[in-house]
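_Full entry_
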Amino acid sequence: MQTTRGLDRLVFFTDAVTAIAITLLVLPLVDSVTQAARDGLSAEQFIGNNFAAISGFALSFVVIARLWLAHHSTFEHVRSYSSPLLLLNLFWAFTVVVLPLPTEMVSQFRTSPPLGRRLHRDDGREQPHAHGHDAVDPEASAA
């Protein structure tokens, strides 16, 4: 039998998972600040060098905060819970916990240019063989 205390524990657990996920987002930036200070970089240089990571952090923070607000709003109306709701809530928490991984990947790995930029040259003409995975910019290859 589910109790009010059990529902409270479910909500508190979810709040804690969300808080930890948001905290984990910022930790790589904190480490970067420490390294930048050791390297003698200014705050402006740090921001310039880490703009993608800072942007990724801000976006992920907003996404997690929005997810939490929706969860909070939904659970304001929940008076009891069942095993399926518990499992759905755990899945929801999993999605929040996983979010720092793609955030860090996007900030650390170079991304490909948009498909349109790979298919067309600067003069608007289509590149030869640009429809396959082996699309190569002939001008870049010559350099």
